[in-house]
Amino acid sequence: MAIALEQEMKAKAQEARAKVIEAEAEVPKAMAEAFRSGNMGIMDFYRMKNIQSDTDMRDAIAKPQGGAKEESSK
């Protein structure tokens, strides 16, 4: 019973990942349409890219490096 439940949860997680990938594929299409319709300008695009870069930088800083571990004070 537990094995079946675990398999079911893995399948649901895989479905959720697939939905996220599908949604991410729609973003460039929506952005192109926003450019065409005039709802998004080039400065909006650059501002969005700057926010993305800032977020990526903060994530990289927050992520621990895979090298040597720091020793705690004894």
UniProtKB/TrEMBL annotation:
Query: Source species, please?
Result: bioreactor metagenome
Which UniProt keywords are present, listed alphabetically? Cell membrane, Coiled coil, Membrane, Transmembrane, Transmembrane helix
Pfam families under this entry? FloA
Q: Which residues form a coiled coil?
A: 6-33
What protein name is recorded for this chain? Uncharacterized protein
InterPro entries in the record, alphabetically?
FloA (IPR022853)
